[in-house]
Amino acid sequence: MELALSTARAKKRCAERGYIEDPYVSHFVADRGTGDPSMTRGYYARIRAIELTFPFGPRLVLGAGFDTSFWRCGGKAVEVDAPDVIRAKREIAKRNSLRVDGLDFVEADLNSFVPESSQPLIIAECVFAYLRNDNILDWASRQENVLVVIFEPLKSNDKFGKIMFENFGIRGWNLRTKTMDEWAVLPFQKVKALSMKTVCDRLLVGEEGARIRGLEPFDDPSEFDLLMSHYGLVLAANGTAVPFLDTLPFLLDD
Ligand SMILES: C[S@@+](CC[C@H](N)C(=O)[O-])C[C@H]1O[C@@H](n2cnc3c(N)ncnc32)[C@H](O)[C@@H]1O
Question: What percent of the chain is predicted at pLDDT more than 70?
Answer without folding.
Answer: 100
